[in-house]
Amino acid sequence: MQLRRKQFEESVGEAAKRTYSPGLPKETEYRVKDYDVEVEDGVKIQVRTLVPASGQNRYPLLVWIHGGGWTTGNVEMDDYQLRAICVELQISIVNIEYRLAPEHPHPIGLNDCYAALKWAAKSQDLLSADLKKGFIIGGMSAGGNYAAVLAHRARDDTFFEDKKITGQVLQIPALVHPDAVPEKYKDRLLSFGEQNKFAPILARDEVMWYYKMLQGTPTDPEISPLLSPSHSGLPPAVIQICGLDPLRDEGLLYDKLLKEEGVKTRMTVYPGLPHAFNYVFPNLAVGWEKDYREGLRWILDGAPQ
């Protein structure tokens, strides 16, 4: 696993730095500080905070969860991209480094992120944040899975009654375990290899491997948020989906289910592009980055129709 993580960090991590380093804002335009956040029984995880340095008193807040199939990745992965967003959108950011599977199986990583989300909500002064201006949770891939689950948790938790999450950003999210797809949806969620001859033959096996590492029960809504009994009352969602992605169809279906329960969504599909293409094909990622920022602005503007 250590070798796999090293290879992931060298490939995806370095690709992310190459892609996003040209847009890195000046160091004087934002402040960076890492904190240790206690999550359980004295265990602490790292969060990286980014705060604009424009002199305004308070900013909206984005809590970000990195991807990596629940088994790899860290706060460095999206660091450059988040620094740019911090300055461009004048938004404070908390970037979470949760504990990874399989050493820390479900729900440890998820609970780490929830503890960090609560810490962020309680740390408005520290973060120069005003949650009434916007309180967004987001993530990519496995991070998108965690963000979707935590949006449900927070909706039902009285802790957030006066600290409502105002939006969620779900980038290429994992939303349902392949073994837990309800019968009524199976015609929409055929294995991607059957739908597109250019898809990797082992795409489903690869997805299954990550879920195996995560552990947990496939039908648990905190593994498969698409199966949640109700999506009503969730905050508006920005959903970005890649056309050449084994997770494509569950993203499309999730968007439909949210809409049916009255949740506002802003969904974009990138035809013919693979999972996490924005890291390795920066010349193709212009639209992705534009939609990402416009989606955040849409949430901050109150998700107008």
From TrEMBL:
Stretches assigned to coiled coil: none
Signal sequence residues: none
Keyword entries, A-Z: Hydrolase
Domain Alpha/beta hydrolase fold-3: 62-277
Keyword Hydrolase tagged: yes
Record GO terms (molecular function): hydrolase activity
Pfam family name, one: Abhydrolase_3
Tree of life domain: Eukaryota
PANTHER family: AB HYDROLASE SUPERFAMILY PROTEIN C4A8.06C (PTHR48081), ALPHA_BETA HYDROLASE FOLD-3 DOMAIN-CONTAINING PROTEIN-RELATED (PTHR48081:SF8)
Name of the featured protein: Alpha/Beta hydrolase protein
Organism: Roridomyces roridus
